[in-house]
Design brief:
- The chain contains one helix and twelve strands, in the order αββββββββββββ.
- It is mainly beta.
- The protein has a single domain, classed as monomeric porin ompg (Porin), CATH 2.40.160.
- The chain has an eleven-stranded mixed barrel with strand order 2-3-4-5-6-7-8-9-10-11-12.
- The radius of gyration is 21 Å and the shape is globular.
- The termini are far apart.
Length: 258
Amino acid sequence: MKKPAFSLFFCFSLLTAAAQDARLRESNALGWFVYNGDHKLSKRWELHTEYQWRRVNFLKHWQQSLARLGAVYQLSDKVNLAGGYTFFTTYPYGRYPVADLGVPTPEHRIHQDIQLEDSLGRLVLSHRFRLEQRWLASLNPDAPREIESWEFQNRIRYQLQATLPLRGQTLDNGEPYLIFFDEVFIGFGKNVGQNIFNQNRISGGIGYQFSKAFKIELAYLNQITQHPEVDDASGKPVFEFNHGFRLNLVYDLDFTKN
């Protein structure tokens, strides 16, 4: 029994080492600053606004910029439907920059969401399924600030989020809470090629609810992402294993009140 078990372990170790050797690894220290707001327009409709200021080396350099605008429809107390538009910019960063022309690369997105909410005792669970249509810019090598063409890609995302009040059975004003989420990104369609796995994010930390309209959350963030293109010099795929923090400000307005 020992010999087959040892053989399996040895083979698995060789396969793991080969897979590690077949790709390039990079690590960056992240500092993400996020604003989210769902502003009530009527009994069932909300306007979603969001901005993310993403930095590497915690604060020193740009990583990405994200501006999002959307609409949310409350189908029931536990089901929301949503859609919107995102303008996304990626800056060259790290040892293997995605855009190696020294200038930022823009991207346009539209998305459709369905979000389901449930609870297990004090623990509030949220499941979000997001379908994205992406238009990624290809830059002109001779004039990097000119967009040569746009490439269309599809992506699906699933996020599981958990919130746990630290006092009592429900989250009330003036109360801290724990928050955790995991989100996986999967590309599909003819332009994705071998890059089916796009990225995964895990985050966990603490939040404080000042009121139902105002919360602040500070959490550890771990991100694994695969570059859309292989490294030019080696021809190997590039994986980032990033870690850092995520500071999230949630501020909701109610436009139905006089």
